[in-house]
Specification:
heterotetramer, A: about 300 residues, alpha/beta, eight-stranded parallel beta sheet, 16 strands, globular, B: about 260 residues, seven-stranded mixed beta sheet, 7 helices, binds flavin-adenine dinucleotide, binds flavin mononucleotide, binds FE2/S2 (inorganic) cluster
């Protein structure tokens, strides 16, 4: 028996597997196709204060080994989310619904804090943690700018920290020369954990129409092709911090998740792969158990940073 | 609640130039699908990371689900290679379908592979008054007409080049019929699937006549289940305009909801 | 007849296709397998002052859709390069040998300048341009550090500019929040063109041995999987500068190269794809001609930035 | 100068448990390959971006190139599926091979698929004195012995488990033979290909005896032509130690050049 429980900066997860924000709706969409008992948490689509329409269509382009998306953080706003979607989630998934990690964003430091406060006040026991998105490449006024400069990052994380008692994850961008200053800013501001990685800025051009495929012109790359880059960032971050890391980026099978653990992750999120095969979540979970058994680990937590 | 069924190819055959019928043994899905819903297919032969492809249901009966599809790109090209006995992962039932208790004469209007959900609809309607209006560029774009005839559905055809039926757009025969119904004071209900231009033409007619119009939208999809917001369509509901998810809030919308 | 000639910051290329540094040796290795008449230049492996051993083995890991390498810039030093390899190249490739773009690097600003000076003084007419590598992720003391900070970048490019009269390309790293400050530093320092992109920092872990596959632990990702990210960087750079851009990153067919031109490239380099199929170079060239013909472009130079 | 030939599979057959012979119609390559050189194969069935896989040449004759390979990973697993008539892109001739005019009794020492280049060598040497020493864990690792016998090459075998020939390492029979030759004052020349441990053992013996030793190294490769520096081996030449490219400066090195 492998102990699959992990503690992600105060969020107790019964398994170290969650979903990546934006690839699993508000948590109930995959009922019937995903075995929720294998999830230690469900991470939902980014939420901000007011309803947000997102970008024009088309919002995605399939590329070899991945996906480029520019959804643009569409969402109903925090009130509808808290009132409607959270209830829908618990009702649909049932008794054993894993805790929610609520991904949040805003157009200003104040908005980030306000969204965090509103969700914290909702006092719904299914809400387990907040994940601050400061790294979405698809909204100009939004997340990305806050994550580009360690000083601004420190400010916005500090403000959210002051606004919530929930475990606080900060989701960082992959396109930085070195992750260290960003990690330090999060630590100093009181974050409980890090999420790595968000999508990599990317672009696809239709050479026949000579136009960008996405209405937003550019988007973010996810899927298998980003995995080796994500492993490196998790490894780098783990080398400079004791903060636990939620790792994501191109997990399609247990092997990909195990690489993340060995590089330093405490938990992992399955994202783009779910679109192709919702069964990936269960097979990552089961593959982790099998790997621990085969390699003599009694607890999945021992895998974190366990390079030989 | 949707499920992901491991189906097996039973029959795979031509349905006209560039079109194919794919019949899948999928008893769980066949039992629950309703007309206008779609399935999300993992195409064998594509790389393991490839996205699924959405297809309307042409028929669901006796444990089998039939799709009618057109080869347009690399996904459908790969799909065309599956053979009887091959396994195909199919997610469904997805989305909201057509209502199947019309308040008037059911008028079905299709273009290209848009006739697929209309066939399943006609079969479930079992309404002897149902008429299919179908258009295409040439007679090669007219699909499965024999299958509609077998259901006892009257078929009225238009082609741009006049190679079959009336010359011109399908709105020609449709407007004729609408005039007749209006003259007789008969209520009718419009159901349509096809290119955006056709959908809008049909929606406009439903709105103008104050008759119900059910419009099935074709939008690029990623997840197919409402999880990603890739497939939006602007709609007005309860006075508010918002971006609905076609895969979850649609693909069938009411004519009056749509904001074009 | 499509005019395929382009001017890459003073380097006259008879076609807009070259090779990516480090994937084409010193230029003669593919004689017999590549049609050199379709190349407008040949870009050679990074050269520094003294011989450099590179990293330990293993130096590569195959990943889906690409390659992670940590060669570590092995090379014989500028003197052996200038004396032996340049001569070997002209002898082997013959009369119509395309000009060489010599990729250079160093451990200090002074070394960069010294290598540039030595190559410039070699006055060998086959040497067409210098490409400064300030973005290799695989050598700690080397290139990368110079490319991470726009101020340091300005300094090192200025020093090389003062040391050479050859057309000067600067090859930038992809892992930056925004390419603009780096582009500006290159412009201000007098660069003639930009090369985009170098490899993306990455890591592969063997989960059975629980060790990084590469002796260097981490490496750089190249190949098809980096293409959408590379297109975005070329697009961004082209939006903020008039400097011509040599684009590279995951070109496997003409379509990939055409995306780069439409995004703003003046010329393109084929890299990792050559390992799998040396014929990619010719098919990219021929596909470009066919595309121009089909779309009514009389000169490939018209494609640059030609988004509709 | 290497070329990239579009070969066609002529024969593909088992060569022992987990081992296969692949015979390719490749007249251009067959005409120029020399023993110890290798070819770089684009494996059909792998994704289009996959790297090539390097293989020594087992035989090159009458327009055909034969490889002897072991299924060890995904590339060789995919290769095992090619069928007669399939096209396979093969790059070659690559690297420096063995000298084929030995100054003494040619002693060939192989392990596993390392016998491949030694077979081609034996065939070209046409030296009745040639002896093959071959080792393996069990008799299942002894490959193509009949093919060596057909060339008139004497074969001396050792297996770790004693299931064929002498029990123990191949160095047992080899040392016996070396003792005999030394006793008779006969010159010999060593040629070897196999696991690193074996290569070092043979190189040490050549150096100790002051006899020529030719060592074929197996290093992970990317380009195969000297363009990428992925495949290095430390060597000493003209007093200087440097990282040689196995694909270009090797794969065959002189025993005294190698720095282990
Ligand atoms: C609800 C719904 C029902 C559909 N029903 C049918 C049907 O019954 N018969 C039929 O032939 N086709 C149907 N389609 C369209 C079908 O999904 C596309 O033709 C198919 O996905 C094209 O894939 P491809 O790889 O061959 O084309 P490519 O153009 O190579 O596909 C590239 C990408 O674009 C997406 N894409 C391309 N065209 C469409 C499209 N029209 N709609 C959605 N995504 C697209 C693909 O999913 C893929 O991500 C339906 C689409 C939707 C949304
Ligand atoms: C000069 C030379 C001659 C060779 N001759 C033969 C031969 O005659 N018969 C034979 O069976 N094998 C031979 N090999 C080894 C053969 O190339 C590998 O077994 C093969 O590449 C493994 O590929 P894979 O995808 O099955 O294994 P995987 O382990 O899945 O390959 C993963 C990666 O590692 C590389 N790789 C793995 N093992 C080796 C290895 N031993 N050498 C080089 N690269 C490796 C692959 O190219 C690939 O990039 C030779 C290797 C070299 C360098
Ligand atoms: C369609 C889509 C929507 C996404 N939306 C969000 C989001 O709202 N907030 C966020 O922090 N990340 C978002 N992401 C990023 C993912 O959560 C994840 O970080 C990234 O996709 C890498 O993981 P993957 O390769 O497994 O998909 C989105 C990704 C995709 C593909
Ligand atoms: C094996 C290898 C060695 C490389 N060596 C160098 C180098 O010496 N100098 C340099 O500037 N870039 C080097 N690069 C980066 C390439 O020139 C190129 O920028 C990168 O690989 C992206 O292009 P690609 O995807 O087409 O390979 C190397 C890349 C590879 C794969
Ligand atoms: S396709 Fe994902 S929400 Fe509709
Ligand atoms: S494999 Fe590229 S140099 Fe040897």
């Amino acid at each position: 028996m492998v102990n699959m429980a992990v503690d992600l900066g105060g969020l107790k997860m019964r398994t170290p597997v969650t979903t990546a924000s934006g690839t699993f709706g508000y948590g109930a969409e995959y009922v019937g196709m995903v075995d929720y008992s294998k999830l230690g948490a469900v991470t939902v689509k980014g939420v901000r204060m007011d309803p947000w329409p997102g970008n024009e269509m088309p919002r995605h382009a399939e590329v070899p080994g991945g996906l480029v998306n520019a959804i643009g953080l569409q969402g109903p706003g925090v009130d509808v989310f808290a009132a409607h979607y959270v209830r829908h989630y618990t009702r649909q998934v049932g008794e054993n619904a894993p805790p929610l990690i609520v991904n949040i964003w805003g157009g200003s430091v104040e908005e980030y804090a306000a969204v965090a406060r509103r969700i914290t006040e909702a006092v719904n026991s299914v809400i387990g943690a907040l994940e601050m998105n400061v790294s979405c490449p698809n909204v100009k006024a939004g997340g990305h700018t806050f994550g580009q400069d360690p000083k601004v990052l420190y400010e916005v994380v500090s403000a959210v920290r002051a606004a919530t008692t929930l475990p606080l994850l900060v989701k960082l961008a992959p396109n930085v020369p070195s992750i260290a200053p960003y990690v330090k800013a999060c630590e100093d501001a009181g974050a409980d954990a890090l999420s790595l990685i968000n999508t990599i800025p990317a672009m696809v051009i239709d050479i026949e129409t000579r136009r960008p495929v996405l209405a937003n012109r550019t988007g973010g790359l996810s899927g298998r092709c980003v995995h080796p880059a994500a492993v490196k960032l998790v490894y780098d971050a783990h080398n400079v911090t004791k903060l636990p890391i939620l790792a994501m980026g191109g997990i399609y099978e247990a092997k990909d998740a195990i690489e993340f653990f060995l590089a330093g992750a405490t938990a992992v999120a399955v994202g783009t792969a779910t679109f192709t095969d919702p069964g990936v979540i269960a097979s990552v979970h089961d593959g982790l158990v099998a790997y621990c058994e085969r390699h003599g680990f009694t607890s999945v937590a021992e895998l974190t940073g366990a390079l030989a | 609640m949707a499920l992901n069924e491991q189906s097996v190819v039973a029959v795979h055959e031509d349905a006209g130039p560039g079109y194919r019928f794919l019949v899948l043994e999928a008893p769980q899905l066949a039992a629950v699908l309703v007309p206008g819903q779609f399935v999300h297919v993992r195409v064998p032969g594509l790389e393991t990371t490839a996205l699924r492809r959405p297809f309307s249901v042409f028929d669901a009966d006796a444990g089998r689900v039939t799709l009618l599809y057109k080869v347009v790109g690399r996904g459908t090209a790969a799909l065309a290679h599956v053979r009887p006995g091959d396994a195909v992962e199919v997610m469904g039932p997805l989305g909201r379908g057509f209502p199947t208790a019309p308040k008037g004469v059911p008028l079905l209007v299709g273009g290209g592979y848009g006739v697929a959900p209309l066939h399943f609809l006609a079969k479930r309607l079992k309404d002897p008054r149902a008429v299919l209006f179908v258009g295409g560029r040439t007679k090669d774009d007219l699909l499965a007409l024999d299958r509609f005839a077998a259901l006892g559905v009257e078929v009225r055809v238009a082609t741009n080049d006049g190679s079959a039926g009336a010359k011109g757009f399908v709105t020609g025969p449709l407007d004729e019929a609408l005039d007749g119904l209006r003259a007789r004071g008969e209520a009718y209900e419009l159901f349509t699937c096809g290119p955006d231009g056709l959908l809008k033409a049909v929606a406009d007619r439903a709105l103008a006549a104050g008759m119900p119009g059910w419009i099935s939208m074709d939008r690029h999809m990623v997840c197919g289940v409402g999880a990603c917001f890739a497939c939006i369509q602007k709609v007005r509901r309860a006075g508010k305009i918002f971006n609905a998810r076609c895969c979850m809030d649609g693909p069938v919308f009411k004519a009056e909801e749509l904001v074009w």
